[in-house]
Amino acid sequence: MFRFLRVIPYLLIAIISIISLFGSIKITNSFWNAFSFNTFCSAVFLLIAYFSYDMIKTIISSREREYIDDYIKNKISNDTFVVLYSLKKVLYGYNLDTNTLSNILDIINCNKQDIFKTIKNQNYIGFQIFKQMDELRNLYSDILNDNFFLKNSSHVDQINILKIQNNLSHLEFNLKNRNNYTECAETGIEYEIINGKSLNPDNDEKMMLVKKTKHEGRFVVYDSSFFNQEDFSFLLKRFVLTEKAAEDISTIIFKLFSLLKYWIPKNVNISKRENRFRIIKDFLDPYSEIKTKKSKIFIGDIIDGKKE
Q1: Where are the domains of the chain?
Q2: CA–CA separation, 220 vs 68, rounded Å?
Q3: CB atoms inside a 10 Å sphere around CB 1
Q4: How would residue 277 be classed by pLDDT, with cut points 50, 70 and 90?
Q5: Nearest CA to 272 among 259, 257, 282, 264?
Q6: How many angstroms separate the first and last alpha carbons of the chain?
Q7: How far apart are alpha carbons 146 and 153 in whole angstroms?
């Protein structure tokens, strides 16, 4: 449609040129003959001028388009990394040895069979699988509500974002369905769960997964999320996926990777001060300042659980 509209001025000018030329040939009256010829010349000049303007505008727009596309892609890539980081926890848990930037980005290249084998053999604690994914979906809701994105992105890109949202919803539904698991006898005894609000009123009312350290009363915050009330008693229990559930979830994750791959930038620069990613290997500093109940707590913080 846009291409057709763009051609309309050329068609109108061309029609006027042809009519004027035909009139200058056929009309015998000297005044109207001269008028037709002058109109023809003006139309030709206008056609050349408009063509030049259109070409210059196209070149400028093309260059601007590159900057706009880069801006949109870089903006969405940050949200995409957050989603990949969350999916990495589903695939590999909280293993700090595998929790590197390169591993997080490389999981997007996993094939469906590798994903299936990984999650089928994974021993999950409830905190990994029963968390709400509203925060992840809202990242893309914000994008879809951004007028700049809607105006400057293609229909294909917008559908891509909608598909990511849809698959995140399917993933959450399948992960939170307790019928998809077999409960194990052991529990996550190395972890404890604390309500972030109870540590400090400035924190969100999220549940925080903290891991014990060799220092008595001190913990490292490994993860945080919101949960449904009915799932609280299952957060430190361990579960294994059934064969059918592992197949279904691996299909969803593979689809997500296919959709997310487009938004991964060539270079990813993550600040060590970015609170969401501080549990990533080499970001976590064992000599971090100890946080207490007077401090707002983030993932990767070391907290003192002893009473002050």
Answers
A1: 2-58, 68-186+236-269, 190-229+273-308
A2: 40
A3: 5
A4: low
A5: 282
A6: 69
A7: 11
What percentage of residues in the chain have a pLDDT greater than 70? 79
Q: How far apart are CA 84 and CA 99, in angstroms?
A: 12
User: d(Cα 204, Cα 206) in Å, to the nearest integer?
Assistant: 5
8 Å CB contact between 267 and 77: no
Other CB atoms closer than 10 Å to residue 249's CB: what's the count? 23
Q: What is the pLDDT of residues 166-222, one digit of tens each?
A: 999 999 999 999 999 999 988 888 888 888 777 777 777 788 888 877 666 667 788
For helices 134-144 and 155-176, the axis angle rounded to 10 degrees is 170
Q: Is 267 helix (H, G, I), strand (E, B) or coil?
A: coil
Name the more confident of 32 and 254. 254
List phi, psi (to 5°) of 185.
-75, -35
Is 267 in contact with 174 (CB distance < 8 Å)?
A: no
Nearest to 196 by CA among 235, 218, 225: 225
Distance CA 105, CA 290 (A): 30
Q: Alpha helix (H) ranges present in 93-125?
A: 101-106, 112-120
Model confidence, pTM: 0.71
H/E stretch holding 187 reads strand 181-187
Residue type, 113: Q
The pair of structure tokens assigned to 284 is 């976590």
pLDDT digits (tens, 9 = 90+) for 83-140: 888 898 888 888 767 777 778 888 888 999 999 999 999 899 999 999 998 888 888 8
CB burial of 103-121 (b: ≥16 within 10 Å; e: otherwise) equals bbbebbebeeeebbebbbe
Dihedral (C-alpha) 122, 136, 179, 195: value to the nearest 10 degrees?
90
- Whether the CB-CB separation of 221 and 297 falls below 8 Å is answered with yes
Contact 291, 304 (CB under 8 A): yes
